[in-house]
Task: inverse folding
């Protein structure tokens, strides 16, 4: 990062630059017409400082280790250098997993230029069948008295493309700018969670266990009846339950034992645990 940007809040050291990061990453591309305030928002987020003048032809990517919802994340921000229309879009379309499209509320032309960027992202997402989080930002909220784009117009455009919408100012409070960048990270995390592969659920047909013959009473030589089974013989025999509701089977060797019911383990009908 150039010295004019100041020292970022979290930048990897020189010895760590070539080491792979173990943190989850969020790649955010900042798009918009020239003069919309893309670089000012980027620098505000990274340094908490506001700088009003930049070289519009410079493009770079910056990193910052952030904590979002008590979870660490490595945010990479590409400050693009497109002038007024999308040019060589592949460089950020194939890199980013979230986009911020910025316009200035005091410049109607910068707002109208957002349509081209939003169309470009939408066509790319449709082509690869993948949805990207998109945030539409109305910047320079401090210039309210010179507003040319109403908030309702911003909300309407965001709704058309399924974007989140915010109005911010790079020269006002840092927390508002930080919030939109962290919201981009949250949206990326939600999108990744939605695309996680679902583990297959194995459902088997319920089948009864082995049928046991009914016990028959046979007189013993002492005149007392005893319980015998054709295949199994046990004391205080309990019928083996079906798979729909399996109870723990216990064997009692004495009538003096507690007659409390055995604990039960209830399974969903038709499911088996592998």
Result:
């Amino acid at each position: 990062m150039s010295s004019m940007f100041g020292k970022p809040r979290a930048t990897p050291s020189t010895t760590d630059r070539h080491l792979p990061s173990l943190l989850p990453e969020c790649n955010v591309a900042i798009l918009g017409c020239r003069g919309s305030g893309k670089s000012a928002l980027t620098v505000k987020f990274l340094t908490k400082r506001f700088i009003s003048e930049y070289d519009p032809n410079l493009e770079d990517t910056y990193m910052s280790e952030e904590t979002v919802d008590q979870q660490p994340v490595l945010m990479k921000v590409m400050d693009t250098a497109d002038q007024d229309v999308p040019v060589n879009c592949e460089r950020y379309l194939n890199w980013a997993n979230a986009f911020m499209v910025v316009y200035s509320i005091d410049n109607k032309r910068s707002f109208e230029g957002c349509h081209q960027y939003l169309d470009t992202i939408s066509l790319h997402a449709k082509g690869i069948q993948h949805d990207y989080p998109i945030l539409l930002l109305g910047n320079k909220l401090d210039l309210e008295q010179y507003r040319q784009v109403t908030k309702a117009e911003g909300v309407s455009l965001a709704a058309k493309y399924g974007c989140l919408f915010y109005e911010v100012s790079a020269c006002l409070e840092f927390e508002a700018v930080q919030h939109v960048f962290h919201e981009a990270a949250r949206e990326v995390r939600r999108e990744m969670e939605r695309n996680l592969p679902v583990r297959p659920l194995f459902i088997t047909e319920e089948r009864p266990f082995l049928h046991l013959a009914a016990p028959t009473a046979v007189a013993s030589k002492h005149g007392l009846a005893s319980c015998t089974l054709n295949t199994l013989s046990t004391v205080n025999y309990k019928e083996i339950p079906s798979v729909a509701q399996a109870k723990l089977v216990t064997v009692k060797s004495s009538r003096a034992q507690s007659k409390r019911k055995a604990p039960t383990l209830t399974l969903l009908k038709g499911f088996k645990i592998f």
User: Anything to note?
Assistant: The longest helix spans residues 108-128. The two ends are 53 Å apart (CA to CA). DSSP finds five helices and ten strands in the chain. Residues 206-252+262-274 form one domain.
